Structure prediction request, 390 residues.
Amino acid sequence: MKIPLSRPDITGKEQKAVMEVLKTPHLALGPKITEFENNFIRYVGTKYAVAVSSGTAGLHLLIRAMGIGEGDEVITTPFSFIATANCILFERAKPVFVDIEPNTLNIDLDKIKVKIKTRSSKIKAILAVDVFGLPCDWSALEKISRMHNLRLIEDSAEALGAELEIPNSKPALPAGRSQKPSIRKAGSFGDAGIFGFYPNKQITTGEGGVILTDNKNIAGLCRSMANQGREIVNGNWLEHTMLGYNYRLSDINCALGIAQLERIEEILEKRRKVARTYNALLKGVPGIKVPYQRECFHRSWFVYVIQLAKEYKKKDRDRILIEMKKRGIGCSNYFPVIHLQRFYRDEFGYKEGDFPIAEGVSNRTISLPFYNNLSPEDMEYVVANLKTLL
Ligand SMILES: *Cc1c(COP(=O)(O)O)cnc(C)c1O
Prediction:
């Protein structure tokens, strides 16, 4: 591929950090894990962070830590990466899909309210996703979940560095003095959130993830379950107080993550710049919609996904993807909807038309090449080819 869909941004600093760990005997369960977790606590602003082997592992542990199991239902979106819903299935609970908003592509809050009304008794939690790095309306989601006594999980895997401006609810200051909104970062909402660090994410550890929460109990359970169910404080190596997994992250991965997170502002700015260049190049191009912008909802650019207009059908989009790839341009159809994946159809009987907004969007998206060091010339090449194919 001449221009890949994504590409990690690893500098000498990251290479050095990994090499330093390799010179020590502490390749696992060493000091880099705590350092990595503490840096996340500082960056996101939660009380606790638990490093895990992947974002998926983080989601799984949260479902378990919240005691969600057989017979329980969790409201979530059909328009996400499959891990979002799979983590519910791991515990034999049922994902209850709610359609998305056509602009933000995030779960539709009004439809959540309707869903809760119709099947309140079994629903235990809401698992919402900051799709393509655009935060959900977390103030509203927190209100809904409080009102119905539901747990709330933030799948912020795609949103490291995204921010929400929350209007200050305190009485207004005297005229002439502006009331500063409070800023909260993605990953800090609900009962707990997660990030994933696969190489296509804003920062990478190769494979890896982290759980973020203010809830001591959730953090403790996750930490123990990620480490074979061991008692974390004063526990013996071969004493296991609960069913656990090996979902640990190694010190090698953590060292890479620490060095990447140190560069986060630079990384986010590079990604904003690429997005701005695409916006400019695509301005006025007929037949497409560029990524949605929303005041007070600051996207962290994970991918750059355009949507074709209604006159294009799925087969047109698929043809464009094939043709772009033939021209050496990495493109993808983020996301095929989850409910129409084979084993979801088989298990739950979902069919086309069940979630029409998500399906309509999903049939028309094209994820363009997007990474920190994507050059303006390469973007021009991408856009020129896209225009021809349209
Ligand atoms: C990447 C991603 C995950 C899973 O992260 P992994 O580290 O690959 O397990 C979960 N949810 C969403 C929305 C993602 O994009």
Observations:
- The mean pLDDT is 96.
